[in-house]
Amino acid sequence: MIIKVRDEIRRLRAGHGVLAPNLAERLGPHLRALCGLNQDAAQLRATLVQHLLAFAGGLPQERQDVLAVSLAIDCGVEHLAHFTDRVDHLAALLSVSTRTALRRIGEAEQELAGEIAAELTRNRGGTRFVNSYYISEYRVIVDNTAAHADPATVSVYQEREIVCVQDGLSEIPIRFELPEHIDTPNPRFSAHVRHGGRVTSLRRPSSTGFELVVGLPAPLVRRQAHRFGLSFVFPAEVVRAHHVITGEVTIRRFQLILKFHPDHPPMWIRRVEGEDVRTLDAFALHTAPHGMFPLDAVGEANLAFDHLNPHLAYGCQYRWGEVPVSRAAASGEDGAG
């Protein structure tokens, strides 16, 4: 499949690249499947560009730059109506010969094809969200060391690096679920932007869901990266005994660290990778579920995930030994931009 996808990417080079007026006719079956079989012509170009940028985001930066120029995604080459002109432009940028620039383009196309082919294999027929950004790196620390203190709290620290794929991105909605939060006018938790933005609104769209909107320092342009950090403090009783994300945007890498007090370790802890979030309720009743692992010597769990699939849960689940199962830790969901 990789060779076929590479050939489809290569066909996009000609003329105006992704800006070609007959783009729909030039898309091969694999790229069309990536964008969605029912995509209308008006949205097809934006969908394709966003997917190409998101999947190229897993490649080295030079590869990303090469593809952005060769396919006319980069705003600086939109005026270059011929592939040969963009090759000459790239050769000048890299201070290499035209022949070397063409070789670099071919190598980048091959690697991008590998990323796309792997996604199509993993997610045949599945829904793929297309948004105005993707998350290149997402790091979370869940601190349970005060979960049995007075007051009992759970602190969560989040760091995201996002990459804009649509000009003008100025705010990021952060969505998360707290099923145990009672229906009160004001939230029982605190939320702060540690750096890289400010909270512009916090609302409750459903009985269990919250949406915090982070305003960015300035609107982002296509391919621009931005990093921001958040911190939350939750009453322990509103938090369930798991921390998972079910991304509604493309997430390239996710690192999760959970900290526990040495006097209050969990009865068990297990890795959650690509599961339906509803399976967590079933596992919560187990005394020794499949996939358990020990904490390290300092009472922490350190997990890493790559190429997360939309809708499915990634993270970990645990069970306290001395509290009722009904008290269950927050599920995080990154919402659409």
Task: Describe the protein's architecture and organization.
With 337 residues, this protein is α+β, with helices and mostly antiparallel strands. The chain has 2 domains: 2-122, no CATH class; 133-334, Immunoglobulin-like. The protein is built from 8 helices and 13 strands. The strands form 3 sheets. Strands 4-7-2-1-9-11 form a 6-stranded mixed β-sheet, with no helix packed on it. It has a 4-stranded antiparallel β-sheet with strand order 5-6-3-13, with no helix packed on it. A 3-stranded antiparallel β-sheet has the order 8-12-10. β5 and β6 (209-220) form a beta hairpin. α1 packs across α7 (98-122), α3 packs across α4 and α6 crosses α7. The radius of gyration is 22 Å and the shape is elongated. Residues 323-330 have low confidence and may be disordered.
List keywords for this structure.
337 residues, alpha+beta, Immunoglobulin-like, four-stranded antiparallel β-sheet
